[in-house]
Amino acid sequence: MEIAVDKRQNCAILKIKGDVDLYSSPQARSQIIALVNNKQFNLLVDFTDVTYMDSSGVATLVEALQLTNKNKGKLRLYKLRQAIRDVFELSRLDKVFDIYEDEQSALHGI
Amino acid sequence: MPQAIEIKIPSEPKFLKIVRATISHVCETMGFSQEDANNITLAVDEACSNIIKHSYCGASDQLIEVLISIHHDRIEVLLKDFGKKVNVKQIKSRELDDVRPGGLGVHLIKSVMDIVNYENHSEAGNELQLVKYIRKKG
Q1: Quick check: helix, strand or coil at residue B75?
Q2: What residue ranges define each of the domains in chain B, with the CATH number in brackets?
């Protein structure tokens, strides 16, 4: 898994590439915590190139959501492929997260 | 007699991808829908992750055995570990309304598989049988 971070407006966009699983999710968690510690409270996650995600990936995003909420920021996810949407739905978290079709709509109003 | 595939991996998270790739490929060759193939792959992956986290307490040098049996109407996956015995009665998923990190693996496994059967009667470790039937189209 690789993560590139772009800054756009008042947001950090995390572009994740590859599988987010028990092996790689600690790396994603570290990067998210580092951004929040640097007072970056609006986070967008681009799922275009995320090929797989398990419950450890979901747990990382739940933690990110709690951190951004606590700091009055936003966490928004976009461009999820169906298999990853299914993981959120099976976890009954699809209504808990703000999920958007694309970057433009995710950036709107943030 | 069903065809069988056996994979043995160390309890190291970076090798879970090998299990996922195998399960996914087997499911596709058996005629599972893409959705079911993805779900079965997720369930087996979650079960392996639980072995690493709970049976082996994060140790990466232990053994996980994955036995895949290919039947005409179903896939059966038997996962074996040789770690700490897990109390079957204590295996449960958390309340989903309680949104917090972690505790989703068992829920995902039970949501997507037709049969989930924990056994730990063997001398060492645990066994988990996962079964999914092929859904007839239409």
Answers
A1: strand
A2: 3-133 (3.30.565.10)
Q: CATH for A2-105?
A: 3.30.750.24
Two tokens, residue A71: 């700091």
Would you call B111 and A62 a contact, using CB atoms and an 8 Å cutoff?
no
Query: Complex ipTM above 0.90?
Result: yes
Binary contact (B45, A19; C-beta < 8 A): no
pLDDT digits (tens), chain B, 138 positions: 889 999 999 999 999 999 999 999 999 999 999 999 999 999 999 999 999 999 999 999 999 999 999 999 999 999 999 999 887 777 766 666 666 666 789 999 999 999 999 987 777 899 999 999 998 765
Q: Is B60 within 8 Å of chain A by CB?
A: no
- Residues whose CB falls within 8 Å of the CB of residue A95, separated by 6 or more in sequence, listed in order: none
Q: CA of B21, closest CA in chain A: separation in Å?
A: 11
How big is chain B, counted in residues?
138
